[in-house]
Amino acid sequence: MSLDALKERLPDYAKDLKLNLSQIASSTALTPQQAWGSALASALASRNAEVVTAIDAAAGDALSPDANKAARAAAAIMAMNNIYYRFTHLASNKDFMTMPAKLRMNVIANPGVEKVDFELWSLAVSAVNGCGRCIEAHEQELFKAGVSKEAIQDAVRIAAIVHAVAATLDDPQLSAAA
């Protein structure tokens, strides 16, 4: 499925999403790899196969095979980490925050792409999954690396757009109407 076909699937009430979806590649603060990696990782986090397929195809040459794999790795590792660290953040017993996680996270140390790109993609997924503790951790790492507020905002903006498209397409009324 192409990005245009995905836009065609969106109902009239989601016109703003169609317009926003067209803007994924227009970031001036992110490289094309950073923008499309954020979109792919967010699509995977949003769990809609149509959206994943369309974003993956639209990313095209903007994502090398290594970058495509790393964006998928960011979505996978953050699916685990976001649940665990959101729990430690929200649990009433704060001892959980100091206990070792005992989760393997080797890909974070060696993602196969620039660390900044992987951090942006992890941040985007953390925004989709609503993990405040992970958002704070990735934001701090990005600021330490000299990433601008605008770049961080763009990665999360892309995550918001992709997630909204996935959520809209999951509407059972759309399936019934097709």
TrEMBL record:
<dbReference type="GO" id="GO:0051920">
    <property type="term" value="F:peroxiredoxin activity"/>
</dbReference>
<dbReference type="GO" id="GO:0045454">
    <property type="term" value="P:cell redox homeostasis"/>
</dbReference>
<dbReference type="InterPro" id="IPR003779">
    <property type="entry name" value="CMD-like"/>
</dbReference>
<keyword id="KW-0575">Peroxidase</keyword>
<dbReference type="GO" id="GO:0032843">
    <property type="term" value="F:hydroperoxide reductase activity"/>
</dbReference>
<feature type="active site" description="Proton donor">
    <location>
        <position position="131"/>
    </location>
</feature>
<keyword id="KW-0560">Oxidoreductase</keyword>
<dbReference type="GO" id="GO:0015036">
    <property type="term" value="F:disulfide oxidoreductase activity"/>
</dbReference>
<keyword id="KW-0049">Antioxidant</keyword>
<comment type="similarity">
    <text>Belongs to the AhpD family.</text>
</comment>
<feature type="active site" description="Cysteine sulfenic acid (-SOH) intermediate">
    <location>
        <position position="134"/>
    </location>
</feature>
<dbReference type="GO" id="GO:0006979">
    <property type="term" value="P:response to oxidative stress"/>
</dbReference>
<feature type="domain" description="Carboxymuconolactone decarboxylase-like">
    <location>
        <begin position="95"/>
        <end position="168"/>
    </location>
</feature>
<protein>
    <recommendedName>
        <fullName>Alkyl hydroperoxide reductase AhpD</fullName>
        <ecNumber>1.11.1.28</ecNumber>
    </recommendedName>
</protein>
<dbReference type="Pfam" id="PF02627">
    <property type="entry name" value="CMD"/>
</dbReference>
<dbReference type="InterPro" id="IPR004675">
    <property type="entry name" value="AhpD_core"/>
</dbReference>
<comment type="function">
    <text>Antioxidant protein with alkyl hydroperoxidase activity. Required for the reduction of the AhpC active site cysteine residues and for the regeneration of the AhpC enzyme activity.</text>
</comment>
<dbReference type="InterPro" id="IPR004674">
    <property type="entry name" value="AhpD"/>
</dbReference>
<dbReference type="InterPro" id="IPR029032">
    <property type="entry name" value="AhpD-like"/>
</dbReference>
<keyword id="KW-1015">Disulfide bond</keyword>
<keyword id="KW-0676">Redox-active center</keyword>
<feature type="disulfide bond">
    <location>
        <begin position="131"/>
        <end position="134"/>
    </location>
</feature>
